[in-house]
Fold this sequence. Notes:
Elements: H1 15-26, E1 38-39, E2 51-56, H2 61-71, E3 76-78, H3 84-90, E4 100-105, H4 109-115, H5 119-136, E5 139-144, H6 154-163, E6 169-173, H7 181-189, E7 193-196, H8 202-209
Helix pairs in contact: 1-2, 3-5, 5-6
Amino acid sequence: MTMVRKPNFMVAISAAMLVSILFIGNMAGTAATVPSTVELPDKLPKAEPPVVVTTLGQSPGALMVRMLCNSVKLKCDEKDLLTAEELLAASKKKDTAYKTLIITMGTSLKGMGAAGIDIESEVKRVQAVIDTARKLGILIIGAQIEGPSRRVDEYDEKSIRTVTPQSDLLIIRKDINKDGYFSNTAKEKHIPIVFITQAMDLTHVLKVLFSL
Length: 212
């Protein structure tokens, strides 16, 4: 598969997106409406705060999720290197007993390099987090909101194929489902799936999921 390398971790979110997030934040008090760019399933699981987001692959996806959560006044802790032990410890404190875990899919070689890790250690870490979240009854949301730039090589596929079939809910950019992997897996595993057209659509999904 042709390697298409991805943008630097911190510059991946464009100025235009930041402006859009600020605009949405100012509109957060308005009633939630779902645009035609969002496809919701008939039934959605109940999502509750507190929320924590991590990444399998150290791409900017987790940062994007946190910023979009903040824009609709949903507190979300970003822990890019979240461990199973940390999740378990957090469960013992009322303020950090997470009820929703969001795992973003897609990799950044620069991000993993900066963290001193590789894809194998990332898969091992996140698998342990998933196992612990399952034992604690935490809702697991698998999200790929960055689009085709995070589905270009075997590293992205390892990230995607680890998280997707183990999620309780999927939130996926529609333009990366051309091979039908996400929709087929969702059907096979009976996982509700939300399709979005662009990352900013996540704000509408969050409002519905968390009744904001």
